[in-house]
Amino acid sequence: MVDKQLLKEVLDLALSSGGDFADIFVEHKQATGIGLEGGKIERVHSGIDLGAGIRVLNGDATAYAYTNDLSKDGLTEAARVVSHASRGQKKEYHLDMRRVRPLVEFSIKERPDGVKPERKVEAVQAADRAARAVDGDRIKQVMVGYGDVVQKVTVANSAGEYVEDERIRTRLMVQVVAAEGTLLQTGYEAVGGLAGFELLEQFRPEAVAETAARRAVEMLKAQPAPTGKMPVVMAGEAGGTMVHEACGHGLEADLVQKKLSVYAGKKGQKVAADIVTVIDDAGMSGRYGSYRFDDEGVPARKVTLIEKGELTDYMYDRLTASREGRESNGHGRRESYQHKPIPRMGNTYIAPGKTDPEKIIKETKNGLLVRKMGGGQVNTTTGDFVFDVAEGYLIRDGEVGHMVRGATLTGNGPEVLRIVEMIGKDLGFTIGTCGKDGQGVPVSDAQPTMFIKELIVGGTSHGRPNGKIRRL
What we know:
The protein is 19% helix and 41% strand. It is an alpha+beta fold. The strands form 4 sheets. Strands 1, 2, 3, 4, 5, 6 and 7 form a 7-stranded mixed β-sheet that branches. A 6-stranded mixed β-sheet has the order 12-11-10-15-22-21, with helices on one face. It has a 5-stranded mixed β-barrel with strand order 9-16-17-19-23. A hairpin with a 2-residue loop joins strand 2 (40-58) and strand 3. Pfam families: PmbA_TldD_1st, PmbA_TldD_2nd, PmbA_TldD_3rd. GO terms for molecular function: metallopeptidase activity.
């Protein structure tokens, strides 16, 4: 997109008034989206976003400018803007542009930019038909969304590093509303990955739609959720919303350094039960939060955050890592060239254990089984959270009983991790777009089936702590 000689000139200009580090992020992103509602295709859109962001770090200060003009004049003007933020002696840099190699590789079987729009539209329509076929009388509304992104990036910096990468992601979501009398219930299911159109071979649109539709219809006969403190079994298929929200954000280094995390200053300390290990691995094959390089050109790698209950690491970008005299561990991410990178999760999960998930249920005398999580909120400073349960069942004497509706889970992230008493050998993933500081990035999260000794189960959504709602 931009030749290396021009990149060198831009970086040199950005550091012309001083500064400790400079980088440039160049992006070419082609996105396609299809939306269906009311049985009709409401929108089909495709577009290209092109631009570059230039950053200078000077101590703890960051100067950032971006432009969609990739000509020499456009890039040099942006470089002049950030150069004015630094005052001092110009340093010598070796801008040799040595190519950085990834630690992982991914393969795409069918590029979405090579798939005709008609095939994508048919996949969306097939999902709509399958959802309505589950219950033609009670299903009142079906919304289907398809999206794919082909993102090409170039990253170069004053350390002489040069990265070229391509990220291809595809996703499909289905939301169904079912009604009986005055009662309305919603079912939701989404799939996605660092993958091409072959994603819809692994997850057939009809199967995704049927799952969402059945969930909505079954919720019509669900009984009101009980309230009070009780044991909770989180099924692996529920996904890792809890670990992402109640734990993951608190392990991002910028929040830790600002003392806005309950985990600040606790590295090396016990923060969870001995059977709990938490990992973020952006190098996992095919996952929605995967990448070869982060948005600062640092290779993705597996990072163990909590190991056997002990806090071992945080997620760093270059800036937060430099404050502690260490290297980034590959978590500098941004929504686009218009945003500066900040520490973000990729694929965050609790590592599987050795217990059969069915055994966990059988050993639970009474409690709540959560098969699907909904939205939620968390206060990262305290770790307090509230989550909605999209699909839950009562457990009575080790057997799964009737479905309940309107359940919420309230607790404290670190406290919950301390009272996990059993962990299954399964692992279930969910996908989403994670919001932070006005930026959204694709993520995956996962957990095995877990027995949590006690959570507060409520039947309303009032009294939530300050935080955010996460939704794809």
